[in-house]
Design a protein that fits this description.
This is CRISPR-associated exonuclease Cas4. By secondary structure, the chain is of the alpha/beta class. It is built from 9 helices and 7 strands. Helix 1 packs across helix 5 (144-163).
Length: 206
């Protein structure tokens, strides 16, 4: 995969949430913002100020560039902590809202861990998700199941982008209401398009 253009880590989160959303953003280059994405952007603007600090034997690096050549991924970690004595990387990703039923946020964080393992030559066994609504960290273990899922999603995203295909919409009200691209996607209308035969019959009848 090294000869291909790297894909952003966020694409994995988008794909696991909704493959069509991922394609609209990363294949068709479309974007729209709603209240949720605006809140997330403001949260990251507060966090994503590059810099380093050292406190209680923990070195904290903000906005650390990431790269995994094996999976051809690229991105930026919100925060990576290096704790003495072994200085093993510990990624922390900031999210608005609360923990979700799906594993999209965990996959994005695990992808950061895979990047850090390749960059620093150390196993990264755990990280954390910080949710703005809960105001606390949720520890995430990078076990075999999560690593396998992350690598599979990365491969699926590469295939989607290489083929340049956008999947058809699947209307799921609870999920689609959260998506800022709902007006561009039009899942309700396109998932069950009107019958051309019915349209012709109506017009011929008139």
């Amino acid at each position: 995969m090294e000869d291909e253009d790297p894909i952003p880590l966020s694409a994995l989160q988008h794909h696991l949430f909704c493959p069509r959303q991922c394609a609209l953003i990363h294949v068709e280059r479309q974007w729209a913002e709603n209240a949720s994405t605006a809140e997330g952007r403001v949260l990251h603007e507060r966090v994503d100020q590059p810099g380093r600090s050292y406190r209680d034997r923990v070195r904290t690096v903000r906005s650390l560039p990431l790269r995994c050549r094996r999976l051809n991924l690229i991105g930026v970690a919100d925060v990576v902590e290096f704790q003495a004595p072994d200085h093993r990387p510990y990624p922390v990703e900031f999210k608005r809202g609360r923990p979700k039923a799906h594993r999209a946020d965990e996959v994005q964080l695990c992808a950061q861990a895979l990047c850090l393992e390749e960059m620093f030559g150390q196993p990264v066994m755990e990280g954390a998700l910080f949710y703005g609504e809960k105001r606390r960290r949720m520890a995430v273990a990078f076990d075999t199941e999560l690593r396998t899922l992350t690598e599979r999603v990365a491969a699926d995203v590469h295939t989607m982008i290489d083929q340049g295909r956008t999947p058809p919409p699947v209307h799921e009200p609870s999920r689609c209401r959260q998506c800022s691209l709902i007006d561009l996607c039009q899942p309700r209308r396109l998932a069950a398009p009107p019958s051309v035969a019915d349209w012709l019959r109506r017009h011929l009848r008139d």
